[in-house]
Amino acid sequence: MTVVVGLAVSAIGYAIVNSESYKDQYMRYKLGIVGSTDSNMLTMGVNLLKNDDDSRFMLDIVRFDDEDEARAALRNGKVSAYVLITDEFLNSVNALSDDISLEYFATSGQRGITGVMIDELADIASELVVSSEKGLLVLEEDLRNAGFPSEAINAQVDQLLLLYVGAMIARGNMAEFSELGLANGLTTPEYYSISLSLFFLLLMSFCSISFFLGKKKATYQFISAKGLGAGRQILAEFFAYFLMNLFCVELILFFVRKLVERNIIPTQNGEIIGDAILVKSEFNIILVVILFSALAFFIFEVVTGVINKFLAAFILYIGMAYISGYFYPKSFFPDGLRILGINLPTGVAFAYMEGLKRESLSTLSSSKMLVGEYVSIPGCIFMMANYTLIFILGSVFIRGRKIRK
């Protein structure tokens, strides 16, 4: 069962990393432009946006002759949106006014990101183009009124135009940009290498449910009568259960390493894509396996009946994994649900592995506990130890009740 679950989780991870939605993150958004661009300043602004501005790394401008052609491209998915430049808008620009807005059309799923792109064009039209034209015309008029010859006026106007263009191109230097990745600085492969590895460890404890079947209260009472009370029984059984789970993990990792050595699993600089932490450090695995083993042990000790054990464990595992961000990034959830997810055992384990990854990248900048997105590594270890102790003590309490009945 562990091998089957490992293969299933690996297949899920492969499908996510190679999905079209993931590949789309590295594609530029295509924005269509329909209508006349006879205005020299407007044409210059569009060309700057297309060729020299930082937006060119995420925006690809496509020109269309008529709106029907642009509408067909939008419906076929060839462009994310298209902008309609009307005669009224051109007249407004030529009159040095910005009272007419650009019209744009987009699909409902792309409206958010394309809205940002349209704002870029709108800023160029309403701010850069209009303000630049006003400045150039005022300079020309003042020089002409001062009696300068046409040659000198043209030279000064051209020099001011170059200053405007230089300011437009250099605007990307006004701020420092950093790529946040999918969640808190982790790329998509890094994020899902952690979440799916933890999900595998969680399901692996579910595969060991046979360890808890066929036991009877009379057996517990007989062993207790021989001097082994509830506490010693739980510790002995938990230690055996933990070693079984750890052996299964090491078995899977052994095959993973062999696949890496044979280049069957793709690598970057000799490491599995996403820098799978579970393969790099067995000590990290032990802490998580102890936590998940204690969680499973407590659930299976509390719940009676084969069907009930299956249902309770499956529902709890899926629910906690979902809230903790194993399937969707935690940033997708509301603040209250996100804080709840990070404080569940599954969330603490996730925060611990995330912290190890960020520490290896020297980007761990917060030690906030129980609130927000970050939890320090010592804080995670403390919370994992507390959860493990609570689950074991809870199991001891339940076993004691079974012995006394």
From TrEMBL:
UniProt keyword list: Membrane, Transmembrane, Transmembrane helix
Keyword Transmembrane helix listed: yes
Residues annotated as signal peptide: none
Membrane topology: Multi-pass membrane protein
Protein name: ABC-2 type transport system permease protein
GO molecular function: ABC-type transporter activity
A Pfam family hit: ABC2_membrane_3
Membrane-spanning intervals of the chain: 191-213, 234-256, 283-303, 310-328, 374-398
Organism: Pseudobutyrivibrio xylanivorans
Domain (ABC-2 type transporter transmembrane) ranges: 1-387
Entries under InterPro entries matching the protein: ABC2_TM
Gene Ontology CC: one annotated term: membrane
Domain of life: Bacteria
Cellular location(s): Membrane
